[in-house]
Structures are given as structure tokens and as C-alpha cells.
Design a protein that fits this description.
128 residues; alpha+beta; Alpha-Beta Plaits; 2 domains; 4-stranded antiparallel sheet; 49% helix; globular
């Protein structure tokens, strides 16, 4: 089993529900073929570096997974067949990239757990 990371950009004309449905479709392709999803991040609507299909923004998504190498081809075929996908990139993580991804997830989780505590502390100082 190798570790992979895929980033794909969906067209900006989708509603939030349609975007989430597309992401679920690709996650189902992975899980139905025996992959284990490690991490998923929705980066949201972002500006593209250059226009793609006359669009200047897109919904960015990141999925990290563990799978056999044969699954990557099936996933990329699903990306190519779906007209909602503007671009995609899948690559295998070496041991250094995996360590970096683990560290990045840990920092992101710590920041997410700190934000509610900071908001509560800030609310208390405003009340006083």
C-alpha cells in the first residue's frame, strides 16, 4: 500500500451541494476499490493562476489516501470522465512527504481546537 495525495479543482458554477456530491463520488471510487482515506480537506472557492475553460475560480479539494497503485488509474479515469473537474493531480508521497503531511494535519488540528477556546476567552474579556 502506497500513500497518495490528490488535488482536484471543480468548476465554480456548482452549488455547494453539487460540489459536495462530486467530492463524495470520487471518495466512493477510492473506497469501493479498497483505498483507505486518510485525510480530506475542502479548500473552498479560490482564484486560479490562469483561466481554465474561461473560468477564473474553482473549488479546490485535497484527498490523502492509502491504496494500491492500480487504484490511481481508476480514480484518474473518473476525473477525466467527469465534466465538473477542471484539473487534477495525483502523486505518491515518499517518506518525507508523508512526514510533512502528518505534521501539517497535526498543526491544522491544533489550530482548529484552539479557535473555540480563543473565541470563548475573547467573549469573556468583552463582557468584563
Amino acid at each position: 500500500m502506497n500513500n497518495y495525495e490528490t488535488v482536484f479543482i471543480l468548476t465554480p458554477v456548482l452549488s455547494d451541494d453539487q460540489m459536495k456530491e462530486a467530492v463524495e463520488k470520487f471518495k466512493d471510487v477510492l473506497t469501493s476499490n479498497g483505498a483507505q482515506i486518510v485525510n480530506e480537506e475542502l479548500w473552498g472557492l479560490r482564484k486560479l493562476a490562469y483561466p481554465i475553460q474561461k473560468k477564473s475560480t474553482g473549488f479546490y479539494n485535497l484527498v490523502e489516501f492509502e491504496a494500491d497503485p492500480t487504484i490511481v488509474k481508476k480514480l484518474e479515469t473518473a476525473f477525466r470522465r467527469d465534466e465538473r473537474v477542471l484539473r487534477f493531480l495525483t502523486f505518491r508521497l515518499d517518506k518525507y512527504a508523508k512526514e510533512y503531511a502528518d505534521k501539517r494535519r497535526k498543526v491544522r488540528a491544533e489550530k482548529a481546537s484552539e479557535k473555540p477556546a480563543e473565541a470563548a476567552a475573547e467573549a469573556k474579556t468583552q463582557e468584563a
